[in-house]
């Protein structure tokens, strides 16, 4: 394989942390190369240097035999390097073609662009209609908009940052076929993911980072997921253990919960029913955008419902707001960590105060007890292994996975009676994900009732006692996880989005 890109001794330091230290490796033409590492290992920083968003302190890059030092993404794109981000930068009120045009330097006339989008989406098996509003698209379809935008520039290297975290299993299949096709045509792919089984299925080579340094390289097909996880963390992992304790009295009762979505292009909840006992974990699956965010808001009290719809420990809390529900023992962690779960510009201490004030008694007689708040924040950082230079850094300076550990840890550390959590291990590495799942199970063991909303089916099957699926705002009846087959799960989730597979016709 001829070499496409070579990195030589790339180093990038931030105050208090060396994000990349002397990183060297090469990517061949058409190679699918995985970049692996724990949260905060430096993966995002590295790809940002390749994409011209971050300038290395030292080191150099060579692209097709020539020195390569992009000073901005437009320059990287000009030289054939494209990137699909974890968070999409799309405008919901514009259609697909208009969104694609916005990302192009010299967009052709709309009619021609629409035709090119159709051609590329057909050629690469990515079903996408250029005339549809982005606001009406599923997460998977939005991702296709970004990918098609990249493909229109005919990239030689395509960087993908955790592309499958928003996808259904069927959408992952579609994406992988596209990536394999691109690779066969000579486009190299640099692929960041925490999902090791996917990496084994897709990638030719892997480079593993730990605390900013390359610690290993391997051929993923020749390694087990467990071996790769252990290379990442440098330790042996233990899977979470579920207890078989009998469940207690009813802790959360949801009756005919209906509520209009407060989110533009959101999904309203329609007559959701379930009952949850102390110590029980209910796993809620579903394709993204089927009411998951709304359910979390309606349970946390941020989205008001009617009296009688939500009972916590037998008390009707249906019409109460978040503070009253928190006082009654319900804590929640939404999916979106920056902005919703955490205020980006505030420090970890301040963010700890925002959610912990009430249940941890951090405000007394109208005064904030800063010493106690600091202890609370420091305790979360320690117990949940949050990698950060300190508790006074702003939330936005943490890597995605470390902020996730902080947000989840903050909620679980408030002696909750009821926990509602959306995508608890989103963007979190294998070791930390196992630790978070274990922490959830420990709280259940201590008597908390837990609602886990997740798109990760393996996660739900691992920790939940009962299972239900959201489908256009409706919840299926709950079923015990034990004895539940994958086909049944598919049927429960089914019908939400018509996943047409465009390949092979
Ligand atoms: N703009 C920044 N300012 C300060 N520190 C930063 C900045 N960007 C990254 N860091 C730090 O650099 C280190 C590497 O972060 P990076 O985001 O590259 O990790 P990552 O491997 O992508 O993690 P994750 O899997 O959690 O997304 C972390 O310790 C992070 O806190």
From TrEMBL:
Subcellular location: Cell membrane
GO cellular component terms, semicolon-separated: plasma membrane
Keyword Ribosomal protein: no
Classification via InterPro entries: AAA+_ATPase (IPR003593), ABC_carbohydrate_import_ATPase (IPR050107), ABC_transporter-like_ATP-bd (IPR003439), ABC_transporter-like_CS (IPR017871), P-loop_NTPase (IPR027417)
PROSITE patterns, A to Z: ABC_TRANSPORTER_1, ABC_TRANSPORTER_2
Single GO MF descriptor: ATP hydrolysis activity
Pfam families: ABC_tran
Lineage: superkingdom: Bacteria
Keyword Membrane: yes
Matching PANTHER family: CARBOHYDRATE TRANSPORT ATP-BINDING PROTEIN MG119-RELATED, GUANOSINE IMPORT ATP-BINDING PROTEIN NUPO
Record-given protein name: ABC transporter ATP-binding protein
